[in-house]
Amino acid sequence: MGNLFNCKVILINIYASNVDYRDFIHNVLASILNVNTHKIVMAGDFNCVLNPDLDRSSATVATTSNNAKTITQFVIDHNLSDQWRFLNPNLRLESLKRMKKLVSLAHLKFLHTSPSASFVL
């Protein structure tokens, strides 16, 4: 938390486990103060897919993880936007390769910002 270009900003960087621990992301996000008075820049490797239609190469239907649900709700609650998706609304991005056999590719890293915090990019 601090000031950037005379704007109060909270920088959130999360590296989540590839195991879907039920409360991990929820507890991290719930511990952040001043989310309603500061602009938010949230980035990280969340190890979950937020948009299966665009962010997963496999046609296999997967259940939405607890982490994905929590992150999506936080993004909605705080009016954040995915900056990569904003610039590439229909482009698929896949960044995960399984070792041994190629199982699926998925977009797991994200950068979400408050509407007027995109100036940090």
Walkthrough of the structure:
The protein has one domain: Deoxyribonuclease I, Chain A. The chain has a five-stranded mixed beta sheet with strand order 1-2-3-5-4. The model is unreliable at 95-100 (pLDDT under 50). It has helices at 24-30, 52-55, 66-77, 83-87; strands at 2-4, 7-15, 39-45, 81-82, 109-113. The radius of gyration is 15 Å and the shape is globular. It has four helices and five strands, in the order ββαβααβαβ. 23% of the residues lie in helices and 21% in strands. Helix 1 (24-30) runs parallel beside helix 3 (66-77). Helix 1 (24-30) links the parallel strand 2 (7-15) and strand 3. The protein is α+β, with helices and mostly antiparallel strands.
